[in-house]
What does this fold into?
Amino acid sequence: MPERVLFDEAGAAAQVGRRIKTLVEFSGVPQGTTGRVLRADRSEDGFTLAIEWDLPERGKPLVDWFTRSEFTRFLTEL
It folds into this structure.
């Protein structure tokens, strides 16, 4: 299992507002779906990022949280 690495405060804050795309399918989010980093949340000993996905057919927003290691592994910036 990969190591769980969180963002530091500055690194998380720098990502807020950026557009991203998922490289893999997961939890009802198809591969290639775009989204936006909504906010940075304090978590244990670091920060995670809240990503709001562009899924208009859902009718309501879908938000997922990512650690730095997950962000690097599963997402790419646009």
Notes: The chain has one domain: 9-77. The beta strands are 19-22, 34-43, 46-53, 62-66, 75-77.
